[in-house]
Every structure is written in structure tokens, then in C-alpha cells.
Write a structure and sequence with these properties.
The chain is mostly beta strands and about 130 residues long. The chain has one helix spanning about 105-110; strands spanning about 5, 10, 20-25, 35-40, 45-50, 60, 70-75, 80-85, 90-100, 115-120, 120-125. Strands 2, 4, 5, 6, 9, 10 and 11 form a 7-stranded mixed beta sheet that branches. It has a 4-stranded antiparallel beta sheet with strand order 1-3-8-7, with no helix packed on it. A hairpin with a 6-residue loop joins β4 and β5 (about 45-50). The longest helix has 4 residues, at about 105-110.
Length: about 130
């Protein structure tokens, strides 16, 4: 059974850092592209970042470029999202998701409908 489990969320002050983890089971995460999404109250789910399975390329939303870093540890079957210089507008539930195909990933990575499997989400709150 394919499953994704997020962890690492919490409360952090503006300017602080958090590292989210997305642990995969039932498949090897390096055979899938893994994306991170977030959804704030009253807002649509938005793509934050993605790492390709085919060539290791990474993609970021403009709002997080230079602050967030996605990486994968294949030995642990886990993908991470390092979040630095956090802002109040980063407050949201963060989800990871997987998709087997990397066709047109550069074009589709931020579209939630593209992904097959989703985790349950982890809350990130940035507040003083």
C-alpha cells in the first residue's frame, strides 16, 4: 500500500526555520516525483516545491525561492523541505504528494490534480 506521512510541522517565530519530512512506504520514493503543497485557511492549495525522480531537478514557487530547499534521502525513502526565513504568510497545512510520471513535470509540478497519492498534512504556524 502506497503511503506518505508528513512530519516536522509546528509553531515557529518569523525568521525561524523548520524542516518537514515526507516518509514514503509501499514504494521507493526515488521512482516517483515528490511535491510539497500547502493550503492556508480560505485559500486554494498551492504548489510549493517538487523534486523530480528522473533527473533530480527541483522546482519552487516564486514565493519560496531562496528560502525553501527540497531534497531527498533515498536510503531513508524520505523527502525533506527545509524552510528558512519563515514569514507569517507561510502559515498553512503542508502536504506532500507523489506521482510516478515525470512527463512534463516542469509544466505540471504545481498542479495538485497531477499527483496520485497524498499525505495527511502537517500544520506550520509562523507567529510571534
Amino acid at each position: 500500500q502506497v503511503q506518505l506521512v508528513e512530519s516536522g510541522g509546528g509553531l515557529v517565530q518569523p525568521g525561524g526555520s523548520l524542516r518537514l519530512s515526507c516518509a514514503a512506504s509501499g514504494f521507493t520514493s526515488d521512482s516517483y516525483a515528490i511535491g510539497w503543497f500547502r493550503q492556508a485557511p480560505g485559500k486554494e492549495r498551492e504548489g510549493v516545491s517538487c523534486v523530480s525522480n528522473s533527473d533530480g531537478r527541483t522546482y519552487y514557487a516564486d514565493s519560496v525561492k531562496g528560502r525553501f530547499t527540497i531534497s531527498r534521502d533515498n536510503a531513508k525513502n524520505t523527502v525533506y523541505l527545509q524552510m528558512n526565513s519563515l514569514k507569517s504568510e507561510d502559515t498553512a497545512v503542508y502536504y506532500c504528494a507523489s506521482v510516478r510520471s515525470s512527463v512534463y513535470l516542469w509544466l505540471r509540478w504545481s498542479r495538485s490534480a497531477y499527483y496520485d497519492t497524498w499525505g495527511q498534512g502537517t500544520q506550520v504556524t509562523v507567529s510571534s
